[in-house]
């Protein structure tokens, strides 16, 4: 890793540390109520306790797995559907508004319906994570392909490349950044929905632990489990960043 | 002193006397931890029948979204008193150093909870539940969880305890055939009973181990209580009067039905569904048992001492 790349990471960590220290002091001197926000040091110390009591680590992988499953479904359905909407302009124009409206809708509130369809199971979590994940992927895939520069296409055509090569070698690489924007948004919405449903129906991974800790008034435990959720989010953000770089190195 | 100056002073003094209220009413912020349940009506009775006003109290009533959130509002000082909060939550918060004190009992035992099946189900009572069939409750560590556990143990059932969420989630899962039983609290879902779509198989009265044990409480922020003990006492007396009125007035029951858009036929039996003798504000009973249950359910890390339990309860606002 170059020095240029190391610096922002270091600065980020220092910033985080300073914020944590300020919070520690604020809680210590009573500016922030300890019952509402615990000392960062107490939150760190709560990790082993939550692990021993609720298997935080194991549940981290449950939520990670549910999010990965829902995101995978969103990808294999969202990208082809986005491609279809790009290829068939009339459908694209027809459904764009509906998709945008559906994306803005709080689909999490539909959980009772999904409980009826799938029961109180992991299938409900995956299905509820899939919906808000797929929509931005569909929209951004279409947008990405629509936004490919005409100049690039003309250059390709001037070299007499086949239609297939034009797509795989010019259109898709050019659309990758926009598609990945959709994927990043999608995976975050998927995670939020899955954790929210876990919290609401008291089932699954980290959301269930957050709920349990909250109902016990165990504030450090609540924050420790929220931090674990953040780690899931960081994992996906980092992972998709790597995949994007691999697909489009420049 | 000139005559004009004298006149002005007298006029100003008179205006000041007239403008100031005789004695300003004490402001109290009350959070009702849930909706619809019969006992949540008493604060409304006190408000709407002028009982608070009579005791020189200016009370605002809001609804919280469940026990934990409502109690949190009191702990942080954004509300002064919480009505109808689960005693386990209060004990748990107190054990973690939260400034909270119990002023009185809302209900002892869980007679207002009931379990039901679809009318065509072969299950007639709890005892008909076979091994593996679901006896439902809302969420782990909740009152319904405790009640289901005590019923299972008291009757020696082989049924499987299953968490289904609140009354509406429970109803959905029962009606779609995912679980064998549903749970509810009177008067919720009584319309389905009236319409013959569901049938009761038993109530919380069968959780014999919980009978006589305070389950929901009235609690206050300790800092507020220390500064406003007289106000807290007046609040408790107002609640007592309002409770008696709600139980004995058909007009109040009609108002209750109207408030929550319930059929009057479903609420007129509320005083029998939630018997008056278990909802008196004193005694706050069975805290030793609740202490033990809290420990078993990991709500607390070690048992509260007798001195702590004594400090926790300020009966009717009085010092322990």
Give a verbal description of the structure.
The complex is a heterodimer of chains A (250) and B (320). Chain A starts with a helix and ends with a helix. The mean pLDDT of chain A is 91. Chain A is mainly alpha-helical and 250 residues long. The radius of gyration of chain A is 22 Å and the shape is globular. Chain A has helices spanning 3-28, 40-54, 56-87, 89-104, 111-118, 122-146, 150-158, 163-201, 206-215, 219-247. Chain B is of the alpha/beta class and 320 residues long. Chain B has 2 domains: 26-108 and 214-317, D-Maltodextrin-Binding Protein, domain 2, CATH 3.40.190; 113-210, Periplasmic binding protein-like II (D-Maltodextrin-Binding Protein, domain 2, 3-Layer(aba) Sandwich), CATH 3.40.190. In chain B, 48% of the residues are buried. In chain B, 42% of the residues lie in helices and 19% in strands. Classes of the chains: A mainly alpha (250), B alpha/beta (320). The A-B interface holds A 33-36, 53, 112, 115-116, 119-120, 200-203, 211-212, 214-219 and B 68, 71-72, 75-76, 89, 92-93, 96-98, 139-141, 162-165, 168-169, 172-173, 176, 178, 298-299.
N-C termini distance of chain A: 17 Å
Secondary structural class of chain A: mainly alpha
| Superfamily (CATH H level) name of the largest domain in chain B | Periplasmic binding protein-like II
The CATH C-level name of the largest domain in chain A is Mainly Alpha
How much strand content do the residues of chain A show? under 5%
| CATH topology-level name of the largest domain in chain B | D-Maltodextrin-Binding Protein, domain 2
Roughly how many Å is the radius of gyration of chain B? 23 Å
Helices of chain A, by number, come to 10
Number of helices of chain B: 15
Which architecture of the largest domain in chain B per CATH?
3-Layer(aba) Sandwich
Number of domain modules of chain B:
2
CATH topology of the largest domain in chain A: MetI-like fold
CATH architecture type of the largest domain in chain A? Orthogonal Bundle
Approximate helicity band of chain A: over 70%
Order of SSEs of chain A: HHHHHHHHHH
- Per DSSP E runs of 2 or more residues, the count of β-strands of chain B stands at 10
**CATH homologous superfamily grouping of the largest domain in chain A:** MetI-like
Would you list the SSEs of chain B in sequence order as H and E? HEHHEHEHEEEHEHEHEEHHHHHHH
Shape of chain A: globular
Total domain units of chain A:
2
Sheet with the most strands, sense and barrel status of chain B: 5 strands, mixed
């Amino acid at each position: 890793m170059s020095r240029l790349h190391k610096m922002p990471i270091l600065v980020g960590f220092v910033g985080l540390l300073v914020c944590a220290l300020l919070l520690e002091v604020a809680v210590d001197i009573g500016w922030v109520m300890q019952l509402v926000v615990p000392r960062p040091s107490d939150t760190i110390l709560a990790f082993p306790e939550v692990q021993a009591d609720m298997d935080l680590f194991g549940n981290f992988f449950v939520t990670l797995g549910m999010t990965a499953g829902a995101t995978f479904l969103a990808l294999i359905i969202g990208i082809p559907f986005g491609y279809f909407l790009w290829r068939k302009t009339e459908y694209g124009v027809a459904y764009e508004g509906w998709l945008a409206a559906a994306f803005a809708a709080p689909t999490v509130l539909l959980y009772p319906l999904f409980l009826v369809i799938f029961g109180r199971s992991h299938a409900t979590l995956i299905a509820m994570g899939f919906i808000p994940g797929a929509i931005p992927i569909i929209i951004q895939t279409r947008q990405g392909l629509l936004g490919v520069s005409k100049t690039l296409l003309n250059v390709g055509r001037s070299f007499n490349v086949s239609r297939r090569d034009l797509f795989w070698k010019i259109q898709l690489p050019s659309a990758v950044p926009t598609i990945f924007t959709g994927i990043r948004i999608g995976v975050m919405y998927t995670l939020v929905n899955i954790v929210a449903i876990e919290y609401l129906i008291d089932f699954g991974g980290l959301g269930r632990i957050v709920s349990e800790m909250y109902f016990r008034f165990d504030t450090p435990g609540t924050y420790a489990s929220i931090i674990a959720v953040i780690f899931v989010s960081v994992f996906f953000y980092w992972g998709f960043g790597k995949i994007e770089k691999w697909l489009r190195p420049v | 002193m000139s005559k004009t100056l004298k006149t002005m002073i007298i006029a100003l003094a008179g205006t000041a006397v007239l403008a100031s209220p005789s004695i300003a009413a004490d402001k109290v912020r009350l959070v009702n931890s849930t909706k619809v349940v019969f006992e949540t009506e008493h604060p409304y009775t006190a408000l709407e029948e002028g009982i608070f006003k009579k005791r020189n109290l200016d009370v605002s009533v809001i609804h919280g979204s469940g026990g934990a959130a409502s109690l949190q509002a009191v702990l942080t000082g954004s509300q002064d008193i919480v009505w109808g909060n689960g005693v386990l939550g209060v004990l748990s918060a107190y054990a973690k150093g939260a400034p909270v004190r119990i002023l009185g009992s809302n209900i002892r035992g869980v007679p207002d909870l009931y379990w039901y099946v679809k009318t065509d189900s072969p299950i007639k009572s709890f005892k008909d539940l076979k091994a593996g069939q679901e006896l439902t409750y809302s969420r782990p560590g909740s009152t319904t969880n405790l009640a289901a556990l005590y019923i299972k143990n008291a009757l020696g059932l082989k049924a499987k305890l299953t968490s289904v969420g609140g009354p509406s989630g429970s109803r959905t899962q029962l009606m779609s055939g995912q679980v064998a039983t549903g749970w509810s609290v009177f008067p919720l879902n009584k319309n389905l009973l009236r319409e013959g779509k569901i049938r009761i198989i038993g109530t919380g009265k069968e959780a014999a181990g919980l009978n006589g044990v305070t389950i929901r409480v009235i609690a206050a922020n300790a800092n507020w209580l220390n500064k406003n003990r007289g106000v807290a006492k007046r609040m408790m007396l107002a609640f007592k009067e309002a409770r008696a009125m709600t139980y004995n007035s058909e007009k109040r029951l009609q108002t209750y039905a109207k408030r929550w858009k319930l059929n009057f036929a479903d609420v007129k039996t509320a005083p029998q569904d939630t018997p008056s003798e278990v909802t008196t504000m004193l005694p706050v009973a069975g805290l030793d048992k609740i202490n033990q249950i809290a420990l078993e359910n990991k709500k607390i890390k070690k048992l509260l001492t007798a001195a702590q339990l004594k400090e926790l309860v300020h009966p009717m606002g009085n010092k322990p």
